[in-house]
Amino acid sequence: MPDSVRPRSVRRFLPHVVWVLLALALVFFVATGSVAYDVVWKLIHPSRIALVETPAKFGLAFRNIEFPSAVDRVRLSGWLIPAAEPAGGLVIEAHGYHQNRASDVPALPVAAALHRAGIAVLMFDFRGEGRSQGDEVTVGLYEQRDLLGAIDYARRLGYRRIGVIGYSMGASTALEVAAKDRAVRAVVADSPFADLYSYLSANMPEWTHLPNWPFTPEIFLELRLINGLDVCKVDPLRDVAAMRQRRVLLIAGTADHVVPMSNSEALYRALHRDAAASLWIVPGAKHVGAYTVEPEAYLARVSGFFHEALGAGR
After folding, report:
1. Do the strands 63-68 and 162-167 form a parallel or antiparallel pair, or are they unpaired?
2. What is the spatial distance between Cα 270 and Cα 268, in angstroms, rounded to a whole number?
3. Pairwise CA distance, residues 291 & 294, whole Å
4. Which CATH superfamily is domain 55-195+234-310 in?
């Protein structure tokens, strides 16, 4: 074949190669995008856990309550456990991902301990969980609106000394909200993640058994497109810099393989310039497992923390 013919043949053939490659790329991203969509759907639509226990298990009087989330006014369901002496303030409990107001193991025992310490307790379900409205969970983003709604509700009841105890996702949400709302005077954060982007980036391949690329970036993109969940916006490690002169107790376990204690250690380092922050590491405790390992010490430490931090007055 003459040399002059070859370039013309290549030029005619090249567009076909480009179109084939583009078609293969499209098929690839449609296929992987479909898999990523299935992961996203399951992540933001965990099955609801039924409420099977109430504060009555611990002999506590309570009343059923409802209040709206801040911003988008999602109706949230909960309980209010008034204190025998209303002078000790109020603590809001914030549950973890795929839990409800009572299903985290420490939740009801903590409520009973706080009640004995003269502190009122508000327990509620985040959106899409328990008996609250909503059908999407955002792992700490829109849950901040829910916690702000609970704070607003407590303030409407007349409480001015407000604390929050959170477990896992609820712990990270509590830190985020306390950094933004001065109404929160004290926080106990049991097993929080330091920032959602790093946490999901590290764990998504293990949970899904899918390669990190291209699936994790696709999952993050689809989370943002489907329900506005920008994982970079849930970053307690960045946002706790705004917290000053608020009491914070971080709790972590050495055997936590869900949210390793390095997350709490990083948060503590970010807070340590403020003498009001402390970190309690419990040897052998798994995720939100400090209460299981050291139940008496856990309740004494948490109730004592809030009794001191909230003080007297309403």
Report:
1. unpaired
2. 5
3. 5
4. Alpha/Beta hydrolase fold, catalytic domain (3.40.50.1820)
- Looking at residue 86, the DSSP 8-state letter turns out to be G
Q: In the chain, pLDDT over 90 holds for what percent of residues?
A: 77
Give Cβ neighbours of residue 153 (< 8 Å, ≥ 6 apart): 65, 67, 122
pLDDT digits (tens, 9 = 90+) for 166-178: 999 999 999 999 9
Domain residues of the chain, as ranges? 1-44+209-233, 55-195+234-310
Q: Running DSSP on this structure, what letter comes out for residue 95?
A: -
pTM score, whole prediction: 0.91
How far apart, in whole angstroms, are the C-alpha atoms of residue 209 and residue 312? 51
Separation of alpha carbons 148 and 216, rounded Å: 30
- pLDDT, tens digit (0-9, with 9 covering 90-100), for 269-288: 999 776 689 999 999 999 99
Q: From CA 253, how far away is CA 282, in angstroms rounded?
A: 5
Q: What does the block give as tokens for 34?
A: 């479909």
What pLDDT is attached to residue 17? 62
Answer whether 143's CB lies under 8 Å from 127's CB.
yes
